[in-house]
Amino acid sequence: MKLEGKVAAITGGTAGLGRGIAEAFLAEGAKVALFARNADKGAKVLDELGVGDRAIFIAGDVMNQSDVEGFIDQTAEHFGALDILVNNAGGAGDLQPMVQLSDEAFDEAMKWNVYSTFWATRRALKPMLEKGDGRIINMSSMEGKHGKPVFTAYTAAKHAVNGMTKSLAREVGEAGVTVNSICPGLVVTDIIKNNGPATAKAMGMEFDEMITMFAQESAIKRPNTVEEIAAVALLLASKEGAGITGAMISVDGGTAQF
Q1: Please, what is the angle between helix 152-172 and helix 103-110, to 10°?
Q2: pLDDT (mean) for 241-245
Q3: Is this model's pTM higher than 0.90 or not?
Q4: 208: containing domain
Q5: From CA 111, how far away is CA 63, in angstroms rounded?
Q6: Where is the Ketoreductase domain (predicted)?
Q7: Are residues 141 and 87 part of one domain?
Q8: Residue 256 domain-assigned?
Q9: Looking at the structure, do residues 104 and 129 belong to the same domain, yes or no?
Q10: Tens digit of pLDDT for each residue in 122-150?
Q11: Are 140 and 165 contacting, i.e. CB atoms less than 8 angstroms apart?
């Protein structure tokens, strides 16, 4: 029960990596607040988790500042504390060659990945700093360490998330708050299955061909799993992770080797 008595807020918490992290935290005794847009799906996930009042769902859009800040405030108010923030929500958005990339698509990538992380983190820091303890875990990507064609906006956004992680870790480390990024490689979640065909088309290939290519770029020659990402998040959230801060931890099967 590594997280017994701890309260975690997870954006994008009803599917994929967010749900996997939520399940790992709940299994270790945490109370968890999930944030996503679809209220019906949120209610369904709470029922499936089957942990009673240890989990709540709050509906909102990470591209809306008031929704994000409201989620943090409601989590702290409902559970009486906020110990862990997982900024999981984000995505690649419109993938286009640079010459075709619109201002609107670039802005969307920044808001979805960077501003959402900034808004949630800034709001969560107050209770953490007052308590003198906290964990902030930002979901970045291997694109936060290198890049690939047509991923320009997403790559820029995830580099920004990593930069925010490094600077904030220096700022709040002495106050007892750790700040880290996880940089996953390919994980075939539902969002990848749903949006992947469009990504593959932008890259000039079929979906299965793209998945195979990404897997072959790694040392392990396969996609990572949700459970492998969640295990690292659990370490960072626990007392055993207290000495890790300002890190961009790759869980990508050896794709980005730095």
Answers
A1: 30
A2: 98
A3: yes
A4: 187-223
A5: 6
A6: 6-185
A7: yes
A8: no
A9: yes
A10: 999 999 999 999 999 999 999 999 988 88
A11: yes
CB-CB contact of 184 with 229 (8 Å): yes
> 254's torsion region: left (phi>0), alpha (psi -120 to 50) or beta?
left
Task: Give the dihedral sign, CA 240/245/251/254.
Answer: negative
4 token code pair: 């017994």
Q: Is the pLDDT of residue 190 over 90?
A: no
Same domain membership, residue 20 and residue 81: yes
Judge whether 174 and 127 are in contact, CB under 8 Å: no
Number of domains in the chain: 2
Please tell me whether residues 116 and 215 are part of one structural domain: no
Q: How many CB atoms lie within 10 A of CB 98?
A: 10
Residue 73's CATH number: 3.40.50.720
Structure tokens at 252: 């990508």
Distance CA(23)–CA(187), nearest Å, equals 17
Q: What b/e readout covers 49-74, taking b as 16+ CB neighbours within 10 angstroms?
A: beeeeebbbbbbebbebebbbebbbb
Nearest 5°: the CA angle 38, 11, 6 is 125
Nearest to 232 by CA among 88, 73, 106: 88
